[in-house]
Design brief:
Length: about 110
């Protein structure tokens, strides 16, 4: 039991370190403007990749198909993002949309 607990603690520490140390190093250093501008696109690229991945269903040896439930739930969420520009509102609208779609049996 002690080995399992120690393993969990060490994995947590390693995860924390690889997420905190880069921020500490970047904060201490002065980065060139071109690099800061390049890095500003990283969150958008990651979110776009996660979004597209959630819309597609993988089938071995075939083209991916569209996850209709996720597509339908994303439409009101995208509209909420355009109107509000608030991440909290987008998340709440997306969750509520998915709940309604599942309640109606469309997913």
């Amino acid at each position: 039991m002690n080995h399992v607990f120690l393993t969990i603690l060490l994995c947590g520490l390693a995860t924390w370190l690889i997420r905190v140390v880069p921020f500490a190093l970047v904060k201490a250093a002065k980065l060139p403007q071109w690099l800061l501008q390049f890095l500003s696109f990283v969150p958008v690229a990651i979110l776009a990749a996660i979004f597209v991945e959630s819309l597609l269903v993988y089938h071995a040896g075939q083209w991916p198909s569209v996850n209709v439930g996720n597509l339908l739930a994303s439409l009101p969420a995208i509209l909420a993002a355009i109107i509000s520009r608030s991440l909290l509102i987008v998340v709440v609208v997306g969750i509520a949309s998915m709940a309604v779609i599942r309640l109606l049996g469309w997913a």
